[in-house]
Amino acid sequence: EAGVAQSPRYKIIEKRQSVAFWCNPISGHATLYWYQQILGQGPKLLIQFQNNGVVDDSQLPKDRFSAERLKGVDSTLKIQPAKLEDSAVYLCASSLLGSKSYEQYFGPGTRLTVT
Amino acid sequence: GNSVTQMEGPVTLSEEAFLTINCTYTATGYPSLFWYVQYPGEGLQLLLKATKADDKGSNKGFEATYRKETTSFHLEKGSVQVSDSAVYFCALIVPGNKLVFGAGTILRVKS
Q1: Which of B33, B99, B100 should we substitute to test contact with A (largest number of A Cβ atoms within 10 Å)?
Q2: Which of A30, A99, B14, B30 has minimal CB crowding within 10 Å?
Q3: Which of B97, B100, B105 to mutate to test the interface with A (most CBs of A within 10 A)?
Q4: A74 phi, psi to nearest 5 deg
Q5: A83 touches chain B (CB under 8 A)
Q6: Residue B52: what are its φ and ψ, rounded to 5°?
Q7: Rounded-to-integer distance, Cα B59 and Cα B111, Å
Q8: Rounded distance, CA A2 to CA A25, Å?
């Protein structure tokens, strides 16, 4: 079974530029999560989707961050414009609905450096 | 609110040494608890979990016991290997299936 795929793996941009990250969850997983992991900290949830609907985006800085999950499969997270403090690893995870929904499977992440 | 506190690292051990990484939590009720591991260049992987008080999660020689009286979920391994070098995250799950992570503990094992 293929795992969660993310691209790109690394991205370097200047502040005020825009950037987009892509995630393809495990086939059949209805729930998709985006986390931000700043160096030296644990991952922090940005947004949670169930199918193509947003379940929780309370921690998403909506003035600059946006995310979508069209057709309930792939997802894109965008930052526009980027700030220095957005430098972090962006992790995508997915999980099944139902009794196994606790287990979240993580992708390798995208490391963003904003200069 | 819900939070997780882990011992600070890095923790540096020699091969075959005993490992303990402390984890305590604050939460409403009795959440399920997890340890995730992140090897260099890879994503987080679930290492073990416990869903209720006194449960012991175990995997790959690692163990952790859910202690509600001390709100703790310490990670232990009797004999570490160089291949165990990684970052270890303690986490709990809150309603809505959202994970709350600790800051992570770097483990370095020397041969």
Answers
A1: B99
A2: A99
A3: B97
A4: -65, 160
A5: no
A6: -150, 165
A7: 22
A8: 9
Q: Are strands B105-110 and B11-14 parallel, antiparallel or unpaired?
A: parallel
A51 part of contact set with chain B, CB < 8 Å:
no
Tell me the pLDDT of chain A (115 aa) as tens digits.
689 999 999 999 999 999 999 999 999 999 999 999 999 899 999 999 998 899 999 999 999 999 999 888 999 999 999 999 999 999 999 998 754 556 899 999 999 999 9
Task: Please choose, from the candidates B12, B7, B1, the residue with its C-alpha nearest in 3D space to the C-alpha of residue B90.
Answer: B7
The Cα–Cα gap between B47 and B64 comes to 10
Nearest to A110 by CA among A27, A3, A19, A18: A19
Beta strand A10-13 pairing with A110-114: parallel
Task: Give A4 to chain B, closest Cα distance, Å.
Answer: 9
**Which tens digits make up the pLDDT trace of B45-82?**
999 999 999 999 999 999 999 999 999 999 999 999 99
pLDDT, one tens digit per residue, over B74-96 is 999 999 999 999 999 999 998 88
- Give me A20's structure tokens: 């987009």
Helix (H, G, I), strand (E, B) or coil at B79: coil
- Cβ proximity of A56 and A47 under 8 Å: yes
Amino acid, res. B4 = V
